[in-house]
Amino acid sequence: MQESIFFKRYSKRSYLDKPITKESLERIFEIVRWTPSCANKQPWRVIFVQNKQRHEKLSAALSRGNEWAAKAPVLVVVCAREADDYSREDDPVKYYQFDSGMATLSLLLGAVQEGLMGHPMAGYDAAGVKTALDIPDEYHVLCVISLGYEGSVDQLDERTRKKDEAPRTRKDIVEIISFDNFDF
Fold this sequence. Notes:
Layout: H1 5-8, H2 22-33, E1 45-49, H3 52-60, E2 74-80, H4 95-113, E3 117-121, H5 126-133, E4 140-148, H6 158-165, H7 173-176
Antiparallel strand pairs: 1-2, 2-4, 3-4
Helix pairs in contact: 2-4, 3-5
């Protein structure tokens, strides 16, 4: 049995200095476009940044500790606004956030399918990201993703390299899955 694409996805931090083809990006765009969403609202807006000046401005908005991401050939910003959300008066859920998370996973799995690595990050200055990319105020920056071909861990500083060399871990199934009731 072929290993599932879900298990091939990981978030490493070293990238090759190799551009991503237009065709690969277009296939990822199409995958993101077909992500399911509540009431088919498709609230996400995804900005792929390759332009050198914009890339540098966006990189400057990353938190200390995420400097490695600036070496990725493409940085991606996922944003959305509440005005594009599905809503019901009796339901306080922010579906635009959930739906944008699904679009982010679609993007990450699409990257794996293209032989790429995507690393989603929470470490950024949202105001700086908005300024760098001219994102309107009503949009929330939900995620920044570095995207490219995996490079060698030898290119990383010692602290970051140790993170990449650490074994992947997950919670035990019984900690996250139950049947018929909330039994954790």
